[in-house]
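Wait, can you check?
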Amino acid sequence: MFGRVTARSLALFLMVLASTFVGQAPALAQYQIDAVSRDAAATPQIVLPEPFGLDTSPVLSGGILAKWSDLTAAIRDESDILTRCRNDATSCPGAAQKFLAVVADGRKRDGRARFGVINRAINLAIQPMSDLAQWGVPDRWSAPLVTLASGRGDCEDYAIAKYVALKEAGVSEDDLRLVIVRDLASGEDHAVVAARWNGTWIVLDNRRLAMIEDTDMPRVLPLFALSRDGVKAFVPAVTVEARAPIQAAESQGAPSSLGL
């Protein structure tokens, strides 16, 4: 009798104990989820710096935003051409074949070497010519296949072709910027591509085959960064040395060579 009572009591105790833990398990799991959520919310989000280590502000209207919007639409149209070329090379235009060859060569490399191959190839594929001489207009931003078809272009045409080639070669768009700077030596605007590698922005410039870091660009004032996120204006801390040439150019009404 005692043995049967003991066994029954032990079984009842185990059932109560099990039900207690089963009931507490969901609450414990939810507590752990809530704790992780609180920790994640309390952890500051890391914001990767823009080129030149400067803050930026979104550009919501104006000529440069319109130019970038029109250009990105043209690039999407050319992307369809590239897709068709990859599926059927026999009907691929010459400019697209040339561009895809640059992209394929870039894909064989990694990191900074990829940037260098594409920078050199685009620099050698295009002859410098102003938009006025080529198109009869002060400024025109052309998509890569248009530029390679003519074989001529100015600084932003080089930069646009490099930007798209790097993206097609596998560089994340998070790590790409088409950057407009003011050249303080000439007072003119200039376009380059900045590509991020190992936390450093590398500048691809049509004026040189060698690549440099953004902070090593001589006497420039960063103006705009263009990317898949749209157009952002740099908010620079202008030095006294930089301020004088800018004010002089503005007082003379110097026009932007990029039509900005």
